[in-house]
C-alpha cells in the first residue's frame, strides 16, 4: 500500500510539473524572411513586441539580400525546393504565380475571414491580394501606388494646371522642356515597367490576352515611346535611367515631372518644400486610368511545420498599430484604414495621392512569366524601342507573345 | 600522391561540368521542381535559333577583342615604363595594381557614375574643355555603351598585363641589351630583336589566360548596364546568367553555358598546348 501510495503521489507530482504538460509550455519558432530597402532598418522592435504578447512563439527573422528581387526570389525558390524554406516570408505579386505552381503557399482565407483586423484593410487591397484562383495566399503588409510628382513652381511659370489626362501631360511636359531641363523623367532602366504601365494600361492596353496588341494598346504605347523619341521631353539618358537617376534628376531640377511613389516624398519635400506635389497618374480621354500597385505582403508556406504560429505573426504585423509601427521601419504606407487616417510619416498631399489612386490600382498578370518580364523582357525591348532599334509595336508583340503565346 | 588532387578536381570541376551537361539536356525550370523531362538537344536548338544568342555572340567577340587588345597595349606600355629607373618607381609599381585589386562591383559603380549623363565627371570635364559640345549618355546609347564597359574593364585589367610583362622583362638578361648596344643597335632594334622574343612566351600565356577570363566575365557588364541598352552590351555569359537566374530556366541557361564552353575550348586547347612542356 505504502509503495502504491508513493507511486500515486509521485505520479500526481509529475503531472503537476511543466514536464507533464509539454504542449502548454512548448515554444515554437517561426522563421521569417524579410527585406527592407533601408539596410539600417531592423525588425527587432517588432519581434520583441510580438514575443511579449505571444510568449509561446519565437520569431527568427532573416534579412535576405534583395539583388533587384531576383536574388531574394531565387533563394526563396531554392530553399523551398531543398526543404529548408522559412515558415513565412515577405513576397511580391510577381512571384505569386511561380509559388502557386510550386504548391508552396498556404491559402489564408479561413484565417483571414476569422481575423478581427480584416475590416481595417480596404476592399481594394483585398481585391488586389486575391489570386487568379480566387484564393488569398498573400497577407497585405505594406503598399505604395505610383503617382505623378509635379513641380508646381515650374508649372506655374507656364500658366498650366496639374495634368490629369495624357494630352495635358504632354502639353505640360513640352512646356517645361528646354535647355538642361526636361518635362518628364522617364525610367527606361531597371524597374521602369512600373512607370510605363500607367501610360499603356491607363487607356488602351489591358493585361489580358490580346490586350497588348489591340490598336488602342499599340497607339498608347507609341505615345509613351514618342515622349522620348519624337517630343524629346525626357533626358537623353532615359533609356537606361533607373530609380537613382529619376529621383536625383527631379531633385536637381533637371526634370519637372516623374512617376514614383510615397517612399521618396519626404526627400522631395526637403528639397522643394511646397513647390512639389503628387497627383494620381494621368488618365485617358475617356476617364480610364491605371496606377501601378507596388505590393509587399507576407505568405505562409505550405511546408511550414508551424503554420498557425506563422499566421499569428503575419496577422499581427498587419493589424492596426503594429502595421503602422512596421511601416515606420519599412518606410512605406500602412495597409490599414485606421492607420492611414492618422498617418504622419509623410505630408498629407502625398498620402492623398496614394489613397486616391487605389481604386485604379492594378498589377501585371499573375503569371510565371511576370518576373522574367519585369527583369529582362521589358527593359530589353523597351530600350530598343526608345533607341529606335525596333518599332514600338514590336515590343508589344513580344510582350503579348511572352504572356499569352 | 596524386589521388587527393585528382579527387578534388573531380569534385570541384568535373561534377559541376557533368551536372551542367545533364541539366542542358532537360527542361529544368526552377519553379517547376517536380517536372524536368529529358528533351535531348532541344535547349541547344532553341538557343541557336534565337537571334539574341547570335547578337550576344557578336557582342562577346567585340568585348573580348576590344578589352584584351587594349588591356595588353596599355599593360605592355606600363610594363616598359615601370622597367626603367625613375624616382618613386616602387610606389608606381605598387599603385598600378590598385585597379586589379578592386572588386568588379566597385569598379562597375565607379565607372557608371563617371560616365553618367547627368552627374558624370567625364561629361563635365569634356564639356568644360570643349571636347564635348554637350553631355553624352554614354551608357544609354547602343553605339557607345559597349565602349563604356570596355573602358572600365581595360582600366581594371591592364595591371595584370603590366605586372606579368614586367616580371618577364626583368627575366631578360641585361647583357643582351649591352651587347646589342655595343653592336650599334637602336632602341627599336633592341625591342624587336631582344624584348619581344624574350617576352613571347609570357605574352602568349597572358593573352590566352586573359581571353578566357574576359570571355567568361559578366560582373562588370551586369553592374554597369545589365546588358543594355536593349541588348547592346549583352554577352554570352550574361545571356546565360539572365536566362538561368532571372528567367529561372536552368536547362536553357546550362545549354548556353555549354555552348560558351565549346566556343572557348579552342583557346583552352591553345593554352594547354602552350604550357604542355612547363
Question: Which percent range describes the beta-strand content of chain B?
Answer: under 5%
Helicity range of chain B: over 70%
Number of domains of chain A: 2
Average pLDDT of chain B: 93
Q: How many DSSP H or I helices of chain B?
A: 13
Compute the separation of the termini of chain B in Å: 20 Å
**Count of alpha/pi helices of chain A:** 19
Description:
The complex is a heterodimer of chains A (405) and B (278). Chain A is of the alpha/beta class and 405 residues long. Chain A folds into 2 domains: 25-144 and 293-356, D-Maltodextrin-Binding Protein, domain 2; 147-292 and 362-404, Periplasmic binding protein-like II (D-Maltodextrin-Binding Protein, domain 2). Chain A is built from 19 helices and 10 strands. Chain A has helices spanning 2-16, 22-25, 44-53, 70-81, 96-101, 109-114, 123-128, 152-157, 166-175, 193-201, 215-229, 243-251, 265-272, 307-318, 320-330, 337-341, 348-357, 370-386, 392-404, and strands at residues 28-34, 57-63, 88-91, 138-145, 147-151, 182-185, 255-260, 276-280, 291-300, 361-362. In chain A, the strands form 2 sheets. In chain A, strands 1, 2, 3, 4, 9 and 10 form a 6-stranded mixed sheet that branches. In chain A, strand 1, helix 3 and strand 2 form a beta-alpha-beta unit. In chain A, helix 10 crosses helix 11 (215-229) and helix 18 packs antiparallel against helix 19 (392-404). The radius of gyration of chain A is 25 Å and the shape is globular. The termini of chain A are far apart. The model of chain A is unreliable at 6-24 (pLDDT under 50). Chain B has helices spanning 3-24, 42-48, 51-82, 89-95, 98-101, 104-114, 121-128, 145-170, 174-182, 187-216, 219-224, 236-246, 250-275. With 278 residues, chain B is mainly α. In chain B, helix 2 crosses helix 13 (250-275). The model of chain B has no long low-confidence stretch (mean pLDDT 93). The longest helix of chain B is centred in the first third of the chain and has 32 residues, at 51-82. Chain B contains 13 helices and no strands. Chain B has a domain at 52-233: Orthogonal Bundle (MetI-like fold), CATH 1.10.3720.10. In chain B, 72% of the residues lie in helices and 0% in strands. Classes of the chains: A alpha/beta (405), B mainly alpha (278). At the A-B interface, helix 4, helix 5, helix 12 and helix 18 of A face helix 12 of B.
Amino acid at each position: 500500500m505504502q509503495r502504491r501510495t508513493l507511486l500515486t503521489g509521485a505520479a500526481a507530482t509529475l503531472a503537476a510539473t511543466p514536464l507533464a504538460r509539454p504542449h502548454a509550455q512548448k515554444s515554437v519558432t517561426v522563421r521569417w524572411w524579410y527585406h527592407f530597402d533601408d539596410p539600417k532598418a531592423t525588425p527587432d522592435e517588432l519581434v520583441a513586441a510580438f514575443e511579449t504578447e505571444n510568449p509561446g512563439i519565437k520569431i527568427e527573422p532573416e534579412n535576405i539580400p534583395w539583388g533587384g528581387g531576383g536574388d531574394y526570389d531565387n533563394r526563396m525558390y531554392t530553399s523551398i525546393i531543398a526543404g529548408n524554406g522559412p515558415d513565412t516570408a515577405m513576397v511580391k505579386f510577381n512571384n505569386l504565380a511561380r509559388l502557386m505552381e510550386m504548391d508552396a503557399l498556404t491559402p489564408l482565407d479561413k484565417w483571414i475571414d476569422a481575423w478581427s483586423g480584416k475590416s481595417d484593410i480596404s476592399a481594394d487591397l483585398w481585391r488586389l491580394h486575391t489570386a487568379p484562383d480566387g484564393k488569398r495566399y498573400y497577407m497585405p503588409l505594406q503598399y505604395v501606388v505610383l503617382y505623378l510628382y509635379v513641380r508646381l513652381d515650374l508649372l506655374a511659370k507656364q500658366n498650366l494646371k496639374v495634368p490629369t489626362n495624357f494630352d495635358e501631360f504632354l502639353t505640360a511636359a513640352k512646356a517645361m522642356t528646354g535647355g538642361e531641363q526636361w518635362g518628364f523623367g522617364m525610367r527606361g532602366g531597371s524597374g521602369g515597367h512600373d512607370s510605363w504601365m500607367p501610360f499603356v494600361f491607363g487607356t488602351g492596353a489591358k493585361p489580358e490576352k490580346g490586350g497588348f496588341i489591340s490598336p488602342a494598346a499599340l497607339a498608347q504605347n507609341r505615345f509613351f515611346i514618342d515622349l522620348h523619341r519624337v517630343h524629346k521631353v525626357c533626358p537623353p539618358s532615359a533609356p537606361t535611367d533607373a530609380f537613382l537617376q529619376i529621383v536625383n534628376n527631379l531633385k536637381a531640377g533637371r526634370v519637372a515631372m516623374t512617376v514614383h511613389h510615397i517612399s521618396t516624398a519626404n526627400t522631395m519635400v526637403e528639397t522643394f518644400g511646397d513647390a512639389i506635389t503628387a497627383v494620381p497618374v494621368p488618365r485617358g480621354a475617356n476617364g480610364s486610368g491605371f496606377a501601378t500597385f507596388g505590393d509587399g505582403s507576407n505568405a505562409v508556406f505550405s511546408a511550414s511545420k508551424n503554420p498557425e504560429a506563422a499566421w499569428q505573426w503575419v496577422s499581427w504585423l498587419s493589424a492596426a498599430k503594429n502595421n503602422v509601427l512596421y511601416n515606420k521601419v519599412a518606410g512605406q504606407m500602412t495597409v490599414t484604414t485606421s492607420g492611414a487616417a492618422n498617418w504622419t510619416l509623410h505630408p498629407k498631399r502625398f498620402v492623398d495621392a496614394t489613397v486616391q489612386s487605389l481604386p485604379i490600382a492594378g498589377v501585371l498578370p499573375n503569371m510565371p512569366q511576370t518576373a522574367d518580364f519585369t527583369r529582362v523582357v521589358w527593359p530589353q525591348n523597351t530600350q530598343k524601342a526608345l533607341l529606335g532599334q525596333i518599332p514600338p509595336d514590336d515590343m508589344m508583340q513580344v510582350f503579348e507573345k511572352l504572356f499569352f503565346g | 600522391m596524386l589521388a587527393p588532387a585528382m579527387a578534388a578536381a573531380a569534385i570541384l570541376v568535373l561534377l559541376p561540368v557533368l551536372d551542367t551537361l545533364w541539366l542542358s539536356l532537360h527542361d529544368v525550370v526552377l519553379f517547376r521542381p517536380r517536372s524536368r523531362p529529358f528533351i535531348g538537344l532541344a535547349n541547344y536548338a532553341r538557343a541557336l535559333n534565337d537571334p539574341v544568342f547570335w547578337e550576344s555572340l557578336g557582342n562577346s567577340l567585340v568585348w573580348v577583342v576590344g578589352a584584351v587588345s587594349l588591356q595588353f597595349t596599355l599593360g605592355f606600355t606600363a610594363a616598359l615604363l615601370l622597367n626603367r629607373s625613375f624616382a618613386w618607381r616602387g610606389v608606381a609599381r605598387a599603385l598600378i595594381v590598385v585597379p586589379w585589386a578592386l572588386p568588379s562591383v566597385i569598379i562597375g559603380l565607379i565607372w557608371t557614375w563617371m560616365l553618367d549623363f547627368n552627374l558624370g565627371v567625364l561629361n563635365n570635364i569634356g564639356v568644360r574643355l570643349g571636347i564635348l559640345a554637350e553631355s553624352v549618355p554614354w551608357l544609354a546609347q547602343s553605339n557607345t555603351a559597349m565602349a563604356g564597359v570596355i573602358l572600365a574593364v581595360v582600366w581594371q585589367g591592364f595591371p595584370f598585363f603590366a605586372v606579368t610583362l614586367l616580371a618577364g622583362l626583368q627575366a631578360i638578361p641585361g647583357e643582351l641589351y649591352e651587347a646589342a648596344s655595343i653592336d650599334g643597335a637602336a632602341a627599336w632594334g633592341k625591342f624587336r630583336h631582344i624584348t619581344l622574343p624574350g617576352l613571347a612566351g609570357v605574352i602568349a600565356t597572358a593573352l590566352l589566360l586573359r581571353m578566357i577570363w574576359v570571355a567568361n566575365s559578366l560582373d562588370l557588364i551586369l553592374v554597369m548596364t545589365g546588358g543594355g541598352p536593349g541588348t547592346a552590351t549583352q554577352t554570352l555569359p550574361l545571356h546565360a546568367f539572365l536566362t538561368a537566374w532571372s528567367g529561372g530556366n536552368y536547362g536553357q541557361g546550362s545549354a548556353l553555358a555549354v555552348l560558351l564552353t565549346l566556343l572557348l575550348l579552342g583557346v583552352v586547347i591553345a593554352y594547354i598546348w602552350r604550357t604542355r612542356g612547363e
